[in-house]
Amino acid sequence: MALRRSVTRLVGDLNLLPSLLPRGAALLHSHATSFGFKEVPEEEKSKLVGNVFTSVSSNYDLMNDMMSAGLHRLWKDRLVSKLHPFPGMKHLDVAGGTGDVAFRVLESINSVSRRAMQHGLAETEEETQIYICDINPNMLNVGKKRAIERGLGENHCLHWIEGDAEALSFDDGSMDGYTIAFGIRNVTRIEKALAEAYRVLKRGGRFLCLELSHVELPIFKQLYDYYSFSVIPAMGELVAGDRESYKYLVESIRRFPNQEAFARMIVDTGFQKVEYENLVGGVVAIHSGLKL
């Protein structure tokens, strides 16, 4: 009986161990990931990121203009120019709830169609389909509102989908193009998001990622760090009344892999002809790859 009581007491003590361990030690047993400079369990990150973008959605466009001095518009133009959109394509823009990239893709396709008609070329029988996928319904609502303001509210080419970059609802090999702008650093498992991008693309499909990246030039880096950690959170507090969300956004940039490391991740996924282009000295980078 004494032996049985001792064993029972020992088992009970072992069951209490997780609650007695420091938070960092507990994370070792639960697949930790980064949320800014913090380490959190993977299952918590998507909720925390969701809270951030719910908070910033109403001021998202204004803050993007202020933080980048309007340059984000040129960066997105460059992204779409590298995509080479064409009439009849099926394109997926992930984490693009505000519609910024999707509207540019549609505008580019319409421009190609107009030039083709001017030269007497027949239009393709395939109907253009552009899917805007975002995990945050508030961001999608911003995009839908912007579409209505642009007279695109009833456009049958645009499809607004609430979905997760790590578990897309689209069929294998169904897309001609995939873009993600300023979104991949916020996913829980980057490798999974890349694998999903590869899965849904057709053979010959193009992957393009625009993301805030790493500045290498020392003097410029010091200025950029000061601007990022001192000015942007203060701007978020002044304009959006939310310092913490913009503090997270800055920290998430520093935790994101540098240009070479991210390129290797894309190659490891299976993409070929992988390359990247630095803009503004590496403040942002456009990574690209083909599924061959």
From TrEMBL:
EC number(s) stated in the UniProt entry for this protein: 2.1.1.201
Main location: mitochondrion
Protein location: Mitochondrion inner membrane
Pfam family, one: Ubie_methyltran
Xref: InterPro entries: SAM-dependent_MTases_sf, UbiE/COQ5_MeTrFase, UbiE/COQ5_MeTrFase_CS
Similarity comment: Belongs to the class I-like SAM-binding methyltransferase superfamily. MenG/UbiE family.
Name listed for the protein in its UniProt record: 2-methoxy-6-polyprenyl-1,4-benzoquinol methylase, mitochondrial
Lineage, highest ranks first: Eukaryota, Viridiplantae, Streptophyta, Embryophyta, Tracheophyta
